[in-house]
Amino acid sequence: MTGPMIQLLVLAGIAVFLILRLRSVLGSRDGYEPPRVETAQDSSRRQEFEVIEGGPDRDITDHVPEDSDAASALAEMKRIENDFSVSEFLQGARGAYEMILMSFENGKLDQITPFLSSDVYEAFSQVVDARQEQGLVVEAEFIGVRDLTLADAQLDDSTKTAQITVKFVGELIFVVRDKDGNIIEGAPGKSKRQKDTWTFERVMGSNDPNWRLVATGG
Predict the structure, then answer these.
(1) Contact in structure between 15 and 96 (CB atoms under 8 Å)
(2) Considering its fold, how many domains does the chain have in total?
(3) In a structure prediction context, what are the per-residue pLDDT tens digits for the chain, which is 218 residues long?
(4) What is the spatial distance between Cα 28 and Cα 169, in angstroms, rounded to a whole number?
């Protein structure tokens, strides 16, 4: 299993419930499909679309401007780890957004502790504890990620610490009830869109494949 796939699986979460909930969005394939054998013609076509060495890296320029500081940082990340993929990282970030957001709303932080910095965990924990003290009950259902963009990327040359900031627009049904069951926020069955800006961090070239959430914002 390659480095990016490990990062993708870890970032997307190991919880089975995430896979089950995503099935309705991603679809499922039933039955047996025989493996496809590549022909000489297929190989020729594939070679025609190979990127000419020295040209722009579409894995980077599809997400940030070619001459930006973010592009330079991402290119350096890929030099440190040849198998690092920006597109695969963003796929993982999409899954991590749902997993972390829903675990937070449901007050189950133990499920996401490995994916949070100590500061973010503490901030989340304070909110969860405050809800419990007030007797508030949150009912949340994730609908999907409506938009995702790579906002920034930075790399510390001395420590090889990488930070990638992603902007999310998520849609969810969110209802808050007081201790008597009265609704004080949201409405059953009515979805709302939520904007979040999250920064993930990891030391490139390290044996730890986890990207951790180190900062959040609206």
Answers:
(1) no
(2) 1
(3) 555 444 544 444 433 333 333 333 222 223 333 334 444 554 444 444 344 456 789 999 999 999 999 999 999 999 999 999 999 999 999 999 999 999 999 999 999 999 999 999 999 999 999 999 999 999 999 999 999 999 999 999 999 999 999 999 999 999 999 999 999 999 999 999 999 999 999 999 999 999 999 999 98
(4) 25
In a domain, 34, yes or no: no
Alpha-helix residue ranges (DSSP H) falling in 27-81: 40-48, 58-61, 69-80
Secondary structure of residue 11 in the 3-state scheme: helix
Could you tell me if residue 50 is inside a domain? no
CA pair distance 212, 120, nearest whole angstrom: 10
Residue 145, strand partner residues: 170
Distance CA 124, CA 196 (A): 14
Paired strand residues for 175 = 139
In a domain, 112, yes or no: yes
User: Strands 183-185 and 191-203, how do they pair?
Assistant: unpaired
Q: Which structural domain, as residue segments, surrounds residue 189?
A: 3-24+64-217
CATH code for the domain of 101: 3.10.450.240
Cα separation, 162 vs 156, in Å, equals 7
Rounded CA separation 141/174 (Å): 7
Tell the residue number behind the tokens 């089950």, with chain if given. Answer: 20
